[in-house]
Amino acid sequence: MKLAALSGALAVAAFGSAQAKPPPLLPPVPYDAGPETFVGRLATDLPGNRVLNQMEIGARAFWRGDHATAKPALDDAILRIDSVFSDNANAAKARKLWYDEGSKDFKGEPYERAMVFLYRGLIYLHDADYENARAAFRRGLMQDAFAEEDQNRSDFALLLFLDAWASHLNGDTDLRDETMVQLKKLRPNYGGIGEKDDTLVLAETGMAPRKLGDGASHAFFVYRRGKPILENQVQVLNGAAPMQAFPMEDIYYQASTRGGREIDKILAGKAQFKATTGGIGSFLSDTTVALSSNSTAFSAGGQYGDAVAAVGVLSGVFLIVSSSSKPQADVRTWSSLPDTVHVLTLGSGGRTPKLTANFLKAGAPVAEKPITCATDANRKQLCLVRAH
Questions:
Q1: pLDDT in tens, 131-164
Q2: pTM of the model
Q3: What is the DSSP annotation of 236-271?
Q4: Distances (CA, A) of 142 to 78, 110, 152, 380
């Protein structure tokens, strides 16, 4: 009886300790809000949210043209991401500890980490630092390739394109052409970069992917496309016939896949793909049944039998707890990212063009916005616009 009572108490204790909860979510911030809200949160928010807050500051300040605020925010996020997700032995050891002990310390999903390097690389482009821009885009590709520890291939076409563009601006035509060969495998319909192109138009449309808790007790999370999606095409107007920007990257696709494989769910930082059979769950169930049968066989054996039975019951209880009492999913996400990124390159002859973006949905005009262009020290243009 004492052993039975002990087994019950331990089972309750184990069940309670297994119900790990993610950090509390803060109130949502409007999509078009500036970085100030997140700057304020740095001083008051949980330390585990620092990288997420810096991501928000970096993107929102970047789109405001405030690079003095965006740079240190993105650099701080990169420093903390690199401590776990860089390509060296120390980081590999840190990943082991981080997955085991630090999952509440937000570092972002692979697509979010890739986007940190993308925005930092765009600032390098703005500053005419093409080699560091290319390095940033390549480090972003590495984040996309990690996909936990599987080291799958990267399929982030936008980063490949920007890698090629940085080489083009730097006069490294061989490197540009090598990268374009890789890009063509992912985007065979993309026309390419013209030899005299010196202007990049980058346009963002739609809302960030949504990260939602799902399953019993929200034990895992899934991605859904951001909503509402009011536009999905971009025309660039330059006083003449409109030019169609190419939809180079679907950010929702990057969120909901790893290395091109579609994700069914993500639990405790590990992606579960649609082809997975769920063998681990079957193993736990089968083992629990076996231990339960063994405890029944020993139940008539006096004190020794009671002890063995209690051990068997406890083993079964702990296996059931470990298989069914999952930690709740962490649904923190970088909310200011877009749904799709479109690109267009053209030749301006070193003159800052006056461009307008015409946003469309299924061919029908939705909105029109001016495109902001900045000329770097080499008379190359970086032109930016986002729908929201």
A1: 999 999 999 998 887 755 455 678 999 999 999 9
A2: 0.78
A3: EESSSS-EEPEEEEEHHHHHTEETTEEEEEEETTEE
A4: 13, 9, 10, 27
Q: For residue 357, give both structure tokens.
A: 């973006």
And the tokens for 118? Answer: 């993308």
279 φ, ψ (degrees, to nearest 5): -65, -30
In a domain? residue 31: no
Select, from the ranges 142-151, 180-189, 295-304, the one with the highest average predicted confidence (pLDDT). Answer: 180-189
Rounded (5°) CA angle 207-218-156: 40
- Is residue 104 domain-resident? no
Confirm whether 85 is domain-assigned: no
Pair 146, 82: CB distance under 8 Å: no
What DSSP state is assigned to residue 49? G
Angle at the Cα of 334 (from 333 to 337), degrees rounded to 5? 135
| Cis status of the peptide bond prior to 72, with omega within 30 of 0 | no
Q: Give the three-state DSSP class for 334.
A: coil
- Give the Cβ contact number of residue 230 at 10 Å: 15
The DSSP annotation for 199-215 comes to EEEEEEESPPPEEEEES
Asked whether residue 178 is assigned to any structural domain, the reply reads no
Query: Which neighbouring-strand residues pair with 221?
Result: 213, 266
187-192 long-range contacts, Cβ below 8 Å, gap at least 24? 187/157, 187/161, 187/246, 187/248, 189/246, 190/161, 190/246, 190/248, 191/246
Structure tokens of 380? 């190359």
d(CA 142, CA 116): 12
- In one-letter notation, the amino acid at residue 91 is A
Number of domain units in the chain:
1
CA–CA distance, 226 with 132 (Å, rounded to integer): 32
Domain that holds residue 287: 279-324
Whole-number pLDDT of residue 267:
63
Four-residue CA torsion sign, 10, 14, 15, 21: positive
Edge-to-edge, what's the strand order for the sheet holding 340-346? Answer: 246-250, 340-346, 199-205, 381-386, 372-375
Q: How far apart are CA 236 and CA 232, in angstroms?
A: 14
In the DSSP assignment, the letter for residue 229 is -
